[in-house]
Design goal:
The chain is globular and about 50 Å long. Helices cover about 35% and strands about 20% of the residues. The longest helix is centred in the middle third of the chain and has 24 residues, at about 120-145. Strand 5, helix 3 and strand 6 form a beta-alpha-beta unit. It is α/β, with parallel strands linked by helices and about 350 residues long. About 40% of the residues are buried.
Length: about 350
């Protein structure tokens, strides 16, 4: 027997677990192989989330750029993608292919949630380039038999103001890709306003909900913070009759991580953070206590873990990864317990 953050489980029960179908996923960055995937499996993850990056210069740029150009280079890159998916499958893991658009150096401080072309001509150019980007990775996901694909991530303005574009995109992706499809909506003023959830297989939420107003909160305080968000989520879930998937969720190992969970260290409003492994662990404990057991909840894809992780005293100590921290054990044990309840 062992215990962690008030959780106790007998290791011998692991072989008797009845799978509940919930996603136990992690965004994994870095090259994966049969050896470095073992720690993820040991921590009871059964999904790998692989992020395909595209980029544009500004929020109103008329084109999405990704790895195009030399055909031989593209073939090599596509083959590498397929190989990574095959390696994950060989290890017994399912794969979620999740494209993201990145704005590298926005001059106005805007990000992908603000993306919106300035006129009709720019809109036509943008949507053509974005469709090519999505179709490219949908074909890779289909060739490699990835179990799930994401048609987009955090385009708040575009999803609300251009729903017909997304409905057509979903229909066309299904002609290319035969697995499950979702969209990753921002927790803030997006997922509740989307009107095409019933065209998808899951309601996908980037679950960086603010949960407390104080530093160093207890797991109980954080759990209370979930209440109002769960009521809103359940309302959308009932409206569209789709299970809810947290396409992304994560917590920094800082004392204030429950106040603004979405805030990256690089873009912090204060620039000052106090290391707190306990607060990070409490956030995950509260998630398991408050959210995981809901019948409508389909699972989580945690942000972020690395295949080449090495414990050190630098940036990663404060950053989102739970690896080598108290939260790692809370996640491992939480996944087990929720399987046998």
């Amino acid at each position: 027997m062992f215990s962690c953050a008030g959780l106790t489980v007998d290791e011998s029960q692991k072989d008797l677990i009845e799978v509940d179908g919930k996603h136990r996923g992690a965004h994994i960055f870095g090259h994966i192989d049969s050896t470095n995937l073992k720690p993820f499996i040991q921590n009871n993850f059964d999904w790998v989330t692989l992020v395909a990056w595209g980029h544009q210069e500004e929020f109103d740029s008329p084109e999405v750029n990704y790895h195009r150009g030399d055909s031989l280079r593209m073939l090599r890159r596509d083959s590498a993608w397929i190989k990574q998916i095959e390696i994950a499958h060989a290890a017994g893991l399912k794969v979620f292919v999740k494209p993201h658009i990145w704005i590298f150096a926005p001059s106005t401080g805007k990000w992908r949630s603000d993306i919106f072309p300035i006129d009709e001509e720019s809109w036509e150019l943008w949507k053509t380039s974005y469709r090519k980007f999505i179709f490219h990775y949908a074909r890779i996901a289909e060739r490699a038999n990835a179990e799930m694909f994401c048609i987009g991530t955090e385009f708040t303005r575009l999803t609300i103001e251009k729903p017909l574009f997304w409905k057509k995109l979903i229909k066309d992706v299904r002609k290319i890709y035969s697995g499950k499809i979702t969209y990753a909506a921002n927790w803030y003023k997006e997922y509740e306003a989307i009107t095409f959830w019933d065209d998808l297989d899951y309601i996908g939420i980037q679950a960086y909900f603010p949960l407390v107003k104080n530093e160093h909160p207890s797991a109980e305080q954080i759990a209370k913070g979930w209440n109002k968000h769960l009521r809103a989520i359940e309302s959308v879930q009932k409206q569209y009759n789709r299970k809810v998937l947290f396409t992304e969720m994560g917590y920094k190992s800082t004392s204030d991580n429950g106040i603004r969970p979405w805030e990256w260290l690089d873009y912090s409003s204060t620039g000052l953070h106090t290391l707190s492994y306990e607060t990070q662990a409490n956030c995950y404990k509260a998630f398991f206590d408050s959210v995981w057991g809901k019948e409508w909840f389909a699972g989580v894809h945690i942000w972020q873990l690395r295949s080449d992780f090495e414990k050190n005293d630098g940036y990663s100590n404060l950053d989102f990864t739970p690896q080598g921290k108290l939260a790692e054990e809370v996640i491992r044990v939480g996944f087990i317990l929720r399987k046998i309840e």
